[in-house]
C-alpha cells in the first residue's frame, strides 16, 4: 500500500451497519509512500496509522493547471 499527502484512507466497516471511516493522510512516515501514516479525521483528531487489509487508498485527484 502506498499513499501520498492529501490521499484518503478508507477503512471499511467490519460488521453490518458499521460505516466506513475516512481519514486524510497529512504525513507519510514510511519510505517511498509506505506506512505508517499520520492521518487526520474529519473532527480534527490526528493519529499514526498502519492500515490493514480492510483499508483502501483513494488517491488525491490531480487537476491540470492552466
From TrEMBL:
SUPFAM superfamilies: Cell growth inhibitor/plasmid maintenance toxic component. Residues 1-57 form the DUF1918 domain. Pfam families: DUF1918 (PF08940). Residues 44-66 are annotated as: Disordered. Residues 56-66 have a biased composition (Basic and acidic residues). InterPro entries: DUF1918. Signal peptide: none annotated. This is DUF1918 domain-containing protein. It comes from Streptomyces rubradiris (Streptomyces achromogenes subsp. rubradiris).
Amino acid at each position: 500500500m502506498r499513499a501520498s499527502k492529501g490521499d484518503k484512507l478508507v477503512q471499511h466497516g467490519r460488521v453490518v451497519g458499521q460505516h466506513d471511516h475516512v481519514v486524510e493522510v497529512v504525513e507519510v512516515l514510511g519510505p517511498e509512500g509506505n506506512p505508517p501514516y499520520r492521518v487526520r479525521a474529519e473532527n480534527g483528531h490526528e493519529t499514526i496509522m498502519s492500515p490493514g487489509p480492510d483499508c483502501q487508498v483513494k488517491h488525491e485527484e490531480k487537476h491540470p493547471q492552466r
